[in-house]
Amino acid sequence: VYQYTIYVEAYEEYRDYYDPLSQWTTDQVYEGLPWGPANMGEINTGLGIGYLPHLNAVENYFEGKKGTIAILMATGVFNKHWTGLQPDGPARAMVLDEVPQTAAEYCYRKNKTDASGMISEENTVWYLPAIRELENTLTTYYPVYKEFQENFYWSSAAAAREGEWVTYEASEYARATMAYVNGSGSIVHKPSGADQYYDPAQGAASAYGKALRTQPLRIRAVYRPSDGGLIDGDSYP
Question: How far is Cα 201 from Cα 203, in angstroms, rounded to an integer?
């Protein structure tokens, strides 16, 4: 069993801003962000090769940091190596008062910058959670956070194409989920498989979480210590 510790941000900073001396305007407080822009393309680095292969991009259960960096590579925030298979450092400095363009960028901006405003891969310990990390977070803390009872949240996992014999990335969709209490009284999560589409008209009442990447949804960043947060006696698979 692969076990490690992650920490969850206590509240969603993008929804509230309390400094009365700040010159920020109301457009810098928002209800959520998209996963990515339209036609951003795929985030995987190839079939079975590179930083985040096809299957790992979709069935990204525990590698939320890699999923986050892969999204940033596809959206121009992080550089790609010339082969396209690996990340190659941040592409630009993070401007403090600039609104993030994606859910992944919001989480990435929580990390420590260097003197030039850059955030290295090594310093990326805050990230958009992988789908299993997110499902476990929402169900575990469902009684604690009212927000978890009322909203879908983005993971860093891409969604699978519908109707394929093998798992391929659906370039316009990603995986979101929400916790709820089922008919048996158990706290469970809503699925986000290849044919399980989020319905924006229903919002929180939607049964499924495969959502268009351009759909603004809620975000809850997670933190994993630089040592991997491994529990004693465990190791990376």
Answer: 6
Tens-binned pLDDT, residue by residue, of the chain (237 aa): 567 888 998 877 766 544 444 554 555 566 899 999 998 999 999 888 899 999 999 999 999 999 999 999 999 999 999 998 999 999 999 887 788 999 999 999 999 999 999 999 999 999 999 999 999 999 999 999 999 999 999 999 999 999 888 889 999 999 999 999 999 999 999 999 999 999 999 999 999 999 999 999 999 999 988 777 665 655 554
Confidence (pTM): 0.90
CA–CA dist 164, 104 (Å, integer): 27
Which pair of structure tokens corresponds to residue 50? 């590179």
CB-based contacts of 11: which residues, under 8 Å, 6+ apart? none
Question: Contact at 8 Å (CB) between 101 and 109?
Answer: no
Count of structural domains, the chain: 1
For 136, the enclosing helix (H) or strand (E) is helix 131-140
Cα angle, residue 49 at apex, residues 43 and 54 outer, rounded to 5°: 40
How is the chain split among helix, strand and coil, in percent rounded to 5?
A: 20, 20, 60
Instruction: Report the DSSP beta bridge partners of residue 127.
Output: 222
Tell me how far apart the alpha carbons of residues 108 and 102 are, in angstroms, rounded to a whole number. Answer: 10
| Cβ within 8 Å of residue 136, ≥6 positions away | none
- Which domain, by its residues, includes 183? 1-237
